[in-house]
Every structure is written in C-alpha cells, then in structure tokens.
Automatic annotation (TrEMBL):
InterPro entries: OSBP_sf (IPR037239), Oxysterol-bd (IPR000648). Residues 151-164 have a biased composition (Basic residues). Coiled coil: none annotated. Residues 144-191 are annotated as: Disordered. Pfam families: Oxysterol_BP. One of its GO terms (molecular function) is lipid binding. SUPFAM superfamilies: Oxysterol-binding protein-like (SSF144000). This is OSBL5 protein. Residues 167-188 have a biased composition (Polar residues).
C-alpha cells in the first residue's frame, strides 16, 4: 500500500512504478497475528526479534551478528541430537523421500467451495477450514457410533443366547432368549437410544469434535466481523 519506484542505475533516473490511491489504502487487509507474549520460542517473530530490531535500526552489522548466534544455536542443537541419537520430529512438516523436500503436514489442496466453505484459519500452526456442513457430518458420525455399539450389543446378545441354548434343554430355549434381549427396531433409534441400550455416552471423538466445533464457531465469528469491517 506504499509507493514503489524504479531506479535506473545507468543514468540515475527514478520512475514512479506504483502509487496506490486512498481507496486502495482503505481496502488494505487487516493483519491478524498471535500476540507476542503468547508465541512459543520457535515462532518467527519471537525467534528473530533481535535480528528484526537491528534491521529496523539500520544496524546491518548487529543484525548479522544476531543471525549468526541463532544459526550457531541450531547447529549445536543438531550436533547434540546426532551424538545422543535423538530423532528430530517436526510438528508441522514431513519429509517427502520421493522429492527430497519438506512438506506441510496439513496442506489442503482441494479447490475452494464457495457453497460449503466459510473461512480458513490457523490454530496452533494447523490450517483449518470452517464448513457449513460440518454439523451434518458430526450427526452422521454420531449415528455411526450408535450403530457400531448396537452391532456389538446384538453380537454379545447372540453369543449369550448361544451359550445358554447349549447349556439348557431345547424346551427351555424360549426362556433363554428372553433373558438376553436385543432392541427390536434398529431403524427407529433416537439420540437417547444410546442410554436405552446401556451406553451412557458416545465415543470420545464425538466429544472432542463438539468442543472443536465450538472453538471453530468462535473463531469464525471473529473472522466474519473482520470481513464486515473490510467491506465497510
């Protein structure tokens, strides 16, 4: 959003290449960054703070010294890991042996879907996309959990009948079946059927997804407010 000039070294002439209008400046996107005090030691702003400070002061010598200090610390840490046999495990990147390159673990290369995708945001270094149909998939996952537990319950009941039938005379088979009951209609299950079957709660993933959905919703509200400010 600033002026850009072209300097011709041969004759010393300077030409204006880009001069943004006030309208362009007003449309500048607001930058959202993690607060400095909340950053970890290896996040760029905190890690390179002394180098950045020297550059802003125009002290190139100091900036070079601070950069050298950082690089030496990294070399020493790598040497210590080699000597101790400690494997370095990056949190956000993986090594692609085929291309011999490091790739971001959570890259999402699918096309943006304007009908389903609401916003993309970063949380703890992981890029995530808020989607309109996430709650629908959550419901599907919940139904799958219930069906899986019903299947296990029916299998257990079937084994129970088989054991009791083998232990009792054939004329007692009816009483045996009634002692190991199963749901009569799987198709008509409601959200409370898990408790009816003796399952007090769904799988742990459902609980995590629900909490995660709340976090995403909160983040999206903030993003939507920022977008409204930008449009204004």
């Amino acid at each position: 959003d600033g002026e850009v000039h072209i300097n011709e070294l041969k004759n010393g002439n300077t030409e204006m290449f880009w001069n943004p209008t006030s309208e362009v400046r007003r449309q500048r996107l607001k930058r959202h960054i993690v607060l400095f005090e909340e950053q970890t030691d290896f996040e760029s702003e905190r890690l390179w703070q002394h180098v950045t400070s020297a550059i802003n002061k125009g002290d190139q010598h100091k900036a070079t010294q601070e950069k050298f200090v950082l690089e030496e610390e990294q070399r020493n840490a790598a040497r210590e890991r080699r000597e101790s046999g400690t494997e370095w495990k990056p949190l956000l990147f993986r090594h692609d042996a085929g291309t011999n390159e490091w790739r971001y673990k959570y890259e999402d290369l699918r096309p943006w879907d304007p009908l389903n995708d609401i916003a993309q945001f970063e949380k703890d270094g992981i890029l995530q996309t808020m989607e309109r149909h996430l709650s629908t998939r959550m419901s599907n996952h919940k139904a799958t959990c219930i069906n899986n537990q019903i299947t296990r319950h029916k299998r257990s009941a079937k084994d129970c009948r088989r054991r009791k039938t083998s232990d009792q005379p054939s004329n007692h088979s009816q009483n045996t079946e009634s002692s190991c009951s199963t749901p009569e209609s799987v198709q008509e299950l409601s959200d409370d059927d898990g408790k009816y079957l003796g399952f007090e709660s769904l799988c742990a993933q459902c609980g995590k997804e629900m909490n995660h959905l709340k976090e995403i919703h909160s983040a999206v509200l903030s993003l939507q407010k920022a977008q409204q400010d930008i449009h204004r």
